[in-house]
Specification:
With 204 residues, the protein is α/β, with parallel strands linked by helices. It has seven helices and nine strands; from the N terminus they run αβαβαβαββββαααββ. The strands form three sheets. The protein has a four-stranded antiparallel sheet, covered by helices on one side. It has a three-stranded parallel sheet with strand order 1-2-3, sandwiched between helices. It has a two-stranded antiparallel ribbon with strand order 8-9. A hairpin with a 2-residue loop joins strand 4 and strand 5. The protein is elongated and about 60 Å long. 28% of the residues are buried.
């Protein structure tokens, strides 16, 4: 376990020591977390989790774009931090990410969610989640294209394989149940976001 008081120190520690994961605040003196993370990412693929305030949405997006594996919004629950760290370490150390293993086409990963289509299983932050077949198919579709907005009609047509004639409300009910199972705070979802007037999309 190593500590760094600023981004410059963090980069130096990673370059000199054997580090398996970096937990780093975006707002740091001398060198901010985004810059430090970009430098770390240029030399290693170890997991990087950013700590951020809710007002720093643009920084979150930038951080994810330049290589962050996850982010945690302050103020945070210490148990959530432990779960996120455990999930990233598990993926990196035990699922082969550290060795640059080829991606399994039957597995989808978005943030702390891992979906195994072959085994029909889902884990959130390392914990097994029980989903109904329809919930599983909705989640798989959303995870297959993170950031894409799917309308209720799109989701119904793809998952139920029939024309969505007045059945869009069924999708909304399933998504509500899905959120209750995968979100830490279903009322303020991190993963399944609503785009008002358009539909739903998956965010990391």
């Amino acid at each position: 376990f190593f500590e760094a008081s600023n981004g410059k120190e963090a980069v130096e520690v990673v370059s000199k020591e054997h580090i398996d994961l970096v937990l780093m605040d975006i707002m740091m003196p001398q060198m901010d977390g985004i810059t430090a993370m970009a430098q770390i990412r240029s030399t290693t693929n170890i997991p990087v989790i950013l700590l951020t305030a809710k007002s720093e949405d643009n920084d979150i997006i930038l951080g994810l774009n330049v290589g962050a594996d996850d982010y945690i919004t302050k103020p945070f629950n210490p148990m959530e931090v432990k779960a996120r760290v455990r999930s990233q370490l598990r993926r990196y150390l035990f699922l082969g990410s550290g060795q640059g293993a080829a991606q399994d086409p039957d597995k989808l990963v978005v943030g702390g969610i891992e979906l195994d289509d072959r085994g029909k299983s889902v884990q959130v932050d390392g914990n097994d989640i029980s989903l109904t077949p329809k919930e599983f198919e909705i989640l798989k579709l959303l995870m297959s294209e993170p950031g894409r907005v799917f309308s209720l009609k799109d989701l119904y047509r793809s998952v139920w394989n029939e024309a969505p004639i007045g059945n869009e409300g069924t999708v909304a009910v399933h998504i509500r149940h899905l959120r209750e199972k995968i979100e830490i705070d279903p009322a303020n979802p991190r993963y399944i976001k609503v785009v008002f007037g358009q539909g739903y999309c998956m965010k990391g």
